[in-house]
C-alpha cells in the first residue's frame, strides 16, 4: 500500500478554509431525478427557502458531468453527493453503493482541480465512518488514471488488472458465475461468450439455471462440485409464471432429470439449510462457491440470481463477484468485482422464494 498517487496538479491554498459536505440523495428521487430540477426551479421562483443540505438546493449548481451521473444512478442504488468549497471554488463528487453491501464507489468528479484530492479523501473517510463501508473504490480518473481502492480512507492502492467477466444476457448468471469461479481457482481459464452460452445450453431449465445442471457442467470441465440444497426436489419453484420459467411442467421435469444424472455420476449432495457463515467457512478453506440469491435485496428486483463467493475478509465479510452490472444506472466492473457483503446482509439474500424454492450452493 502507498499513501496514494497524486496525479492531479493542485495549486497552493489553505486546506483549513475548505468546507466539506455529504448530502444524501433520498430514494424518492430515484427514477424521478428529472423532477429535482423542476422542484429547484419552482422553489427559486416562489422564494421558498429549502433546508441547507437538501439536494434540491444544490442540484442546479452541479456541473453537467456530476448531474448526469446523478440522474443515471437510479434503481436501488443509495447515493451521496459530496461537495467541497473554499469560498471561491467548488468541487463535486458522486458516491453510491448497492443496498446491503459494504462498498462505496466514487465517480463523476467535477469542479476545481485543486480541491480534488481533499474531496476524495473526505468522501472516502465519510463513507467508511458514516456509510459503514468497508471498502471505497474510485472509477478511473477520479483519484488516479486507474481504478483505486482503500480500506481506511487514507492509504490507496490500484484495484488491479482484474478479469471479471460479466454476463452478456439477462439469464446467464449461473454459467458466468461458474466460469468466474473456475477462473479464480485456475487463472489460466478465462471466461468468454462461447463458453457462457454453451454452459447455459447444458444447464438451463428454460430459461434459468439450477444447481444440478450447473454442477454437471462443472464436472464435465474437470471440477469436483459439491451441491448443498435446503430440500429435495426441484430447487427453483416450477410454478406457472415463476421467474425464469417458460413452461412449469418442463422446468420441473428437467430439474428431476438433472438431479438424477448428478446422483448417477456421484456428485455429492448435502440436503441441509445453510447460512452466510457456512459460505464463509468454505471460502476460508480455499473454495469458490456459487450461491443462489434473491436479487431484490441488492438490485431491487425479485429474481433468482447466481453469484460467486471467492473469499472473505478477516471479520468474515464475504467477497462476491456478481456477474450482473446495471450499466444503465452507471455501474461498471468496479461495482461488481470483489464486492464486500457482510454476513448478516448475505443471509438476507440466500432465501429466494422460500419455501416454494430452496436454498442452493455449489462448492468447487
Describe this structure in words.
It is built from 12 helices and 14 strands. The protein has helices at residues 34-46, 55-58, 64-72, 116-130, 173-185, 193-203, 211-220, 248-264, 276-284, 296-299, 333-336, 343-349, and strands at residues 19-25, 78-85, 90-97, 103-111, 135-138, 148-150, 156-158, 226-229, 269-271, 289-294, 304-312, 318-321, 339-341, 360-363. The longest helix has 17 residues, at 248-264. It is elongated and about 75 Å long. This is Peptidase C39 like family. InterPro entries: DUF3335. It comes from Bifidobacterium apri.
In terms of topology, how is this protein built?
Blueprint: E1 19-25, H1 34-46, H2 55-58, H3 64-72, E2 78-85, E3 90-97, E4 103-111, H4 116-130, E5 135-138, E6 148-150, E7 156-158, H5 173-185, H6 193-203, H7 211-220, E8 226-229, H8 248-264, E9 269-271, H9 276-284, E10 289-294, H10 296-299, E11 304-312, E12 318-321, H11 333-336, E13 339-341, H12 343-349, E14 360-363
Parallel strand pairs: 4-5, 8-9
Antiparallel strand pairs: 1-2, 2-3, 3-4, 5-6, 6-7, 8-14, 10-11, 10-14, 11-12, 12-13
Helix pairs in contact: 5-6, 6-7, 7-8
